[in-house]
Amino acid sequence: MAVKRILLVDDKALLRDALVEYLGSEEYEIIEAEDGEKAIALFKTEDVDLVILDHNLPGIDGYKTLQLMKQTKPEIPVIGLTGELTIEIREKYLSVGAYDIHAKSAIYEKLIPTLKSALKGDKASPADKKPDYVRLAEDLKNEGRWEESAMYLKEAGLEQKALENKEKANEYFEEAINRYIRAGRRSKAVEIEKMIID
């Protein structure tokens, strides 16, 4: 099997080293960049099969880097990484053509399956204009992506709260709490507890 070339972009050498070790060297050849400028230069000159791109980069951030990459070689899949994944960040990335984006807290369970799907040419995550938060939460739960699933349930709860559907809002908030706990994100669960309507 041909070795796949991956451009790994992160300003933290420790994370790059850990990911290089995690991905192994038999299936993948890793090219590293510590900032957006270097990543774009390498992306233009090197033949790569996939990009793993950190959101919080010095200088040009990951989102701008992604936009510039997609203008150059739109067919190359890009998987985003971020320390704090929000719905806004996720939807921004998907809307400009990212294959997917993961919270760094979940990359070790999620990165390899996503990476293999992208390299196989499987369809990318849909960037819905008006997302159905509950459906997205269930899809992510089925993939074992508990933290991201909880994030969407929280949004569904906030939507119901705004519509004054107290019972439905609380139902979504409580399930979001359970999923954050399952993901090991207790501080996030505590944040949601404060949103429950008495």
How does this structure look, described?
The protein is of the alpha/beta class. It folds into two domains: 117 residues, Response regulator (Rossmann fold), CATH 3.40.50; 61 residues, no CATH class. The chain has a five-stranded parallel β-sheet with strand order 2-1-3-4-5, with helices on both faces. β3, α3 and β4 form a beta-alpha-beta unit. α6 runs antiparallel to α7. The longest helix is centred in the C-terminal third of the chain and has 17 residues. The radius of gyration is 18 Å and the shape is elongated. The termini are far apart. The mean pLDDT is 88.
Any low-confidence stretches, pLDDT <50, length ≥5? none
Portion in beta strands: 5-15%
CATH architecture of the largest domain: 3-Layer(aba) Sandwich
Helices and strands, in N-to-C order?
Answer: EHEHEHEHEHHHHH
End-to-end separation in angstroms reads 58 Å
Q: Give the strand tally.
A: 5
